[in-house]
């Protein structure tokens, strides 16, 4: 039927119970007796007092609604090892999720940091440990389309000295007597200095308080001392991931961790990713195959 030529209208239609005489009990009885869902829908249409008054569009919409309600189906698949593993893999949440708290040691130009940030979506906390006194540049981050405000609210950095609990940072004074302030420029400089000092103290306190959700390491240094240093700050059952291009380094790490009961199932695996997931961005092909390397995974 041409929809433009029909005289049907929905103006006076009432889809209440009075025009749909099939009750819930009757429908359940039909289902339990083995009546096919299409037959149940047809019976409802036949019993609907105002169905013929509906427009063709409304009739189709009515049938689609009933099909969604009564024609639910599923497909069985063979419970092979692959299918079972794939199912549980799909059920497993992303370890770097919004709201999570992570520690990272990234000597891979910021590739690890960018990967974690892309999954966090601007929520949570990421503290990185680096060699520099000032926040690390992380060249890869320049290629990403991150919102600077989102990054600054999530990412903070400490160097290896300030990550030591017994270390006292040597900092210039941020507060001086009012009579010693000679200009607005000096006042502004002192204010900025205080913000930096307070942020450093806050980040240290946060790290030392611990209970982080994971530790990710891609460093030029030997991984075992790093793991020993930072593991106290992650929570129970948190994941530890160490990346290295050298199998022997990870084999040695695995042997070290097997001797510590608190590390569960240390495993060396190999994997490859040719792109970085996340929002649209640009990056050079130099990083495409960087994960064609060995990964070490353990649970603390």
UniProtKB/TrEMBL annotation:
InterPro entries with a match to the protein in the record: TRM6
Primary subcellular site in the record, as a coarse category: nucleus
Superkingdom to which the source organism belongs: Eukaryota
Keywords: Initiation factor, Nucleus, Protein biosynthesis, tRNA processing
A GO CC term attached to the entry: nucleus
Subcellular location: Nucleus
Molecular function GO labels: translation initiation factor activity
GO biological process: tRNA methylation
Family of the protein in this entry: Belongs to the TRM6/GCD10 family.
Name the UniProt record assigns to this protein: tRNA (adenine(58)-N(1))-methyltransferase non-catalytic subunit TRM6
């Amino acid at each position: 039927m041409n929809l433009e030529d029909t005289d049907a209208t929905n103006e006076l239609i009432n889809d209440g119970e009075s025009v749909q005489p099939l009750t819930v009990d009757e429908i359940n009885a039909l289902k339990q007796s083995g009546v096919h869902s299409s037959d149940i829908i047809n019976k409802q249409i036949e019993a609907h007092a105002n169905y013929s008054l509906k427009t063709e569009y409304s009739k189709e919409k009515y049938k689609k609604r009933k099909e969604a309600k009564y024609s639910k189906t599923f497909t069985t698949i063979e419970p092979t090892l692959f299918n079972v593993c794939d199912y549980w893999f799909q059920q497993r949440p992303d370890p770097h999720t919004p709201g999570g708290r992570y520690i990272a040691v990234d000597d891979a130009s910021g590739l690890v940091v960018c990967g974690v940030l892309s999954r966090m979506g601007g929520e949570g906390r990421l503290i990185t440990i680096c060699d520099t006194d000032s926040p690390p540049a992380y060249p890869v981050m320049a290629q990403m389309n991150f919102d600077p405000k989102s990054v600054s609210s999530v990412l903070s950095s400490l160097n290896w000295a300030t990550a030591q609990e017994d270390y006292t940072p040597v900092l210039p004074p941020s507060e001086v007597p009012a009579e010693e302030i000679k200009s607005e420029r000096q006042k502004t400089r002192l204010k900025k200095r205080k913000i930096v000092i307070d942020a450093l103290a806050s980040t240290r306190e946060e790290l030392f308080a611990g209970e982080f959700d994971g530790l990710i390491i891609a460093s030029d240094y030997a991984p075992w001392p790093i793991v020993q240093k930072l593991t106290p700050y992650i929570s129970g059952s948190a994941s530890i991931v160490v990346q290295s291009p050298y199998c022997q380094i990870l084999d040695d790490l695995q042997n070290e961790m097997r001797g510590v009961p608190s590390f569960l199932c240390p495993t060396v695996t190999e994997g490859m990713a040719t792109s970085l997931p996340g929002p649209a961005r640009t990056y050079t092909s130099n990083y495409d195959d960087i994960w064609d390397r060995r990964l070490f995974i353990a649970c603390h």
